[in-house]
Structure formats: structure tokens, C-alpha cells
Amino acid sequence: MPKDLTESHRRFLQEMMKCGIMDVSKCNSLYKKCCEIHKANYVPDKLDDFVNEINTPLQPMFMHIRCGMSEEDGQQYYALVNLADTEITRMATDYSDNELELFRKAMDFILDSDNGLASSTDILNLADTVQTKKMKKKDAEQVLQRLVQNKWLCEKNGEYSLSTRCIIEMEPYIRNVYQDSVCNICHNVAVQSQMCENPLCGIRMHFPCVARVFRGQPEPHCPACKDFWPHEIPELNISQSQLPAPSQPGPSNEKASRYGRPRR
Amino acid sequence: MSQKKRTSSQKSQAPSNRLSQVARNEAVDSDEEDVSLTEPSTSQVQQSLARLTVAQVDRKMAEVLQFILIKDQKKMPIKRADIVKHVLKEYKTIYSEILKRVDRTLGQVFGMKLVEIDTKNHTYVLINKLEPVELNITDMHTGSSKTGLLFVILAVIFMKGGIVKESIIWNMLKKLKVKCGEKHDDFGDVKKLITEEFVRQRYLEYARVPHTDPIEYEFRWGLRAEKELSKMKLLELVSELQEQDPRSWTTQWKEAEQAESSSRGSSQ
User: Fold this and answer.
1) ipTM for the complex?
2) Is the model's pLDDT at B179 over the cut of 80?
3) Confidence at A247, pLDDT banded by 50, 70, 90
4) d(CA B166, CA B217)
5) Scanning every residue of chain A, which has its alpha carbon at the shortest distance from the alpha carbon of B10?
6) Which helix (H) or strand (E) segment is B214 a member of?
7) pTM as predicted
8) Looking at residues A168-173, what average pLDDT do you find?
9) Pairing relation of β-strands B204-209 and B123-128?
10) Is residue B191 within 8 Å of B181, Cβ to Cβ?
């Protein structure tokens, strides 16, 4: 029998809806605060359970609060995602049909690329191929700005990548269509990653996962084929050093992959 | 590198068996409750419901709910005509049934309520059933400063008897370093914000004062403000700031009391 939601659950959900995405430490603070305000029993370290209690009645609404990792800093985030793929998705009201088409094209371009990036020129060129309605380059620039503002894309040095929110929301799609793009360490979808140069191996690892797995190793070798790992090892983020050992994926990652199975 | 098998916009699959079972039980219960005599007739509704599968009805309900939530993010009132045109389409005979379920879910899961603010045009707004609270953790969204500004304006209008000339509002705002015609750091074009955006969202009403030359305008509370804000709480806040007993404003106190009792009566 699913547990009835209380005011603390509803408050949490409302805040999640306003933000769209929140890192785990903020979520924990919010969880605590919601329990305090509504005089509910606060149990530390039970954020996952609390979120699952909310997810149960959300499922028939095709909504879900899903956990995922940022490819940038390796931090865990919770995002409110849409499970249904109809026109009535959250993005659809903010963006017109041709803007959505541009976004999908940009996303596919990024996913097809080796480095998970697209330059603004790349995306503006894509604007010419939009079929639903003609789009001028100037309009495409505006759409790009909004996409970054609404946290669907990230921009750094003129290059665009998929935001954490986008990856968490589109995870089933990415997993389904781009089946090779999975991190060897945490088993989540990998958009930006380092790849083993051995043509018989070719495993991928997220940058933060590389940092973790090669921590303190002066001569890193591919965990799968043992070839020398030629890429630059990124710096370990301070909060990452508190994460569990690289060999087990964390519990929240397992939950994420449960919903990542390709849809029929 | 990866096969680019483009699964073009596929419709989502029907909910699992377990969900259908739960929903079937729910459908039976709600049919028995449905004694409202709005058009179309109950039997017509039941006939339509019977023709559709439970999964289809559940699906439509989820879509209507999403539609409402999205419209509400922009604080735009939701028209019944839009819901029927964009979401329900051929399911429009069971509109009232679906709306009832949506309202129930909104309350139980989201802590919100659908309130009709225009019974002629069937326009709704989503009201938060939870009280506004200081939650500094998540104030990364810019809504909070606009809300503060709105609150100040609503307070002034209320304390001055419900109608205030536009010039009075600008004089008051000037003291807070918010000037008409100047671009403000947080609010941008303030005139546009208070005379257009807040009005569109139904927080304020902005109307011409008849027989004025040059044309003058006045502000009133909008329908959404009437439904969402507690006049009593507002009066208590103002009293605290002025360090006076709230009852010393007898007219406002009476009005606040009236608003309290009528809202208590209408909420379920």
C-alpha cells in the first residue's frame, strides 16, 4: 500500500518543480527543512526513501525525480523529469516546434560527436536544416541563449554541451539510441568522456570517473584492457574524494539505470 | 561510432498492468460519486468512459495535469477552451470527470488547488494550498524579488481601501528607489512588470479612471491575489511594521475577517 504523501513531501515537490534540478546537498537541506516546517519526522540519510515516496504517486503522471551525476564535477543531482514523450512535455510550452527541432538536432549532433561538444557555428549551421519552419541564424542564437538559461545546454568558451539536467531527463533516449556511450566505471550514460585508444577496447569513462579511478596512480592503465591510458588525468574534485570506491556504482546510480532501459 | 537509429517521436507505451488495476478500481469509485448534473449528462459521461480504456483516460488525465502545471509555471490563467483544444481533443465529453481527478491529484500530491476565477469564460488558476514560507535554500530562482515588489504594492492597495491611483504607487516605489521609466537591476522595465505582467497573471488590475484628461489609471487587487493571499496575514504584517494593533484599522480589519471566513467556507 503506497504511503500517503504529507505536507513535507508536497513542499519538497513544489521546490523541485521550481528549480528543475538541485544538487544532493541542497536536496538534503531542503528535505530537512520541509520536515521541520511541517513537523514531520526527519530521518537523516533517508533522502532516497523520501524521494521514492514522492515518486510513487508521480509515476501515473509520467513524472519522476531522478538522480544523476554531473559530468562536470562528479556531483550527484536530483532532477524532476518527464517520462512521457508526447507534445505536452515541459519544454514544449517554452519552445515552438522549430525551436524544439533545433534543440533535438543540436543534441544529436553533440551525441554523435567524439567529444560531446558542438561549437556555436555547428549549431547555427544546423538551424538552416530545420524543417518545421525556417529559422534565421539570429533567431537560432536567441534560442541557444534560452536553452542555456533554462539549463538544457551548457556553454563554455563558445562550445555547447548537454547540461546535467538534459542528460538526466534524456537518459533513456540517449541510452536507447547511443548504446555505446556508457561509462565503464559508473555505468551511466557518458556524453563527454575519455576513450581508450585501443581499437579492440574503446571503453569510455567520464572525466570525474577517470579522476576517481586513477587517484594517486602515477601510471594509469585502462581498467579493461590494461593499455597505457594516454589522456590527461583530471583533478579530483574535493567532494568526489568522499564518494565510494570506483568499483561499485552507488545505489542512486542503480536506480537511475533501472529507468534507463530502452522503451518499447 | 554509435549507430544513429533515430527513434522518431514515438508515443509512450501504455501504463503497466499494475497501474491499470489500481486505476480500474479508482474509475469504479469515481463513477459512483459522479452525481453532478453539468452538461453532458451523467449517462453520456459514463457511456464515453466505458468506450475508452482505463489506460486512455489515465493518460489524458496525466496530460491535462502536466498542461496545467506548465501553464502555471508562468502564472498564466488556464482556459478550459485551451485544455480541450490542446489536450483533451476527442475526449472532451469527459472533461468534468478528468478535471475532478486532476484536482484531487493536485491536492494530494502537489499541495495545490484549481480555482475558477472566471466562471463565464471558465478560466482557472492554480492556488498553492501550502503557506508561503522562507526557504532560503532554493531562492536561486529570480521569482522572489518580484514577489516582494508585488507584495508591497498589494499591501498599499489594501491599506488604502482597495483602489489606488497609479501615481500613488509610483511615489511609494520611488521611496524604495524603484523608478518608473528607469531600468531596475532586479525588475528591468518596472512599468511593464506591474502594468502588464502582474496584470496578465491576474495579481493586479489596472484600469482607466473614466473622465480623466490626461488619462489616469488605478490599481486594484486581481482575482489571483484575492484567492492566494490572506488579507489577515497581510494586515498583521503591516501592523507589525507600524507597531500598531491590527484592529486600529477598523475597515481593513473587518475586510480581512470577512475574507478569512469566506475562504474557510469555500475550501474543502
Assistant:
1) 0.76
2) yes
3) very low
4) 6
5) A85
6) none
7) 0.70
8) 88
9) unpaired
10) yes
Q: What are phi and psi of B125, to 5 degrees?
A: -130, 160
For residue B37, pLDDT over 80 is answered with no
* Residue A30, burial from CB neighbour count under 10 angstroms (0-12, 13-18, 19+): buried
Helix (H) or strand (E) holding B125: strand B123-128
Rounded distance, CA A53 to CA A56, Å?
6
d(CA B38, CA A19): 38
Least confident segment among A210-219, A235-244, B251-260: A235-244
Question: Which grid cell sits at A28?
Answer: 538534503
DSSP state of B17: H
Contact A60 B69 (CB under 8 A): no
* Number of alpha carbons in the 13 Å side-chain half-sphere of residue B41: 3
Q: What is the mean pLDDT of residues B8-36?
A: 36
- State whether residue B8 sits within 8 Å of chain A by CB: no
C-alpha cell at A125: 549551421
Q: Residues 55..114 of A with a Cβ closer than 8 Å to B: which?
A: 57-63, 82-86, 88-90, 92-93, 108, 111-112, 114
Per the CB < 8 A criterion, the answer to whether B224 and B77 are in contact is yes
pLDDT of A241: 57
Enumerate the residues of chain B whose CB falls inside 8 A of the CB of residue A30: 135, 137-138
